[in-house]
Amino acid sequence: LAFALCSRSAMLTVLSLITMFTGLWLIIFRRKAITQVIGFLIFENGIAIFSSGMAVHYGLVIELGILLDVFVLVFIMGIAAFQINREFEHIDIDRLHQLIEPEAQNEETK
Question: pTM score, two decimals?
Answer without folding.
Answer: 0.54
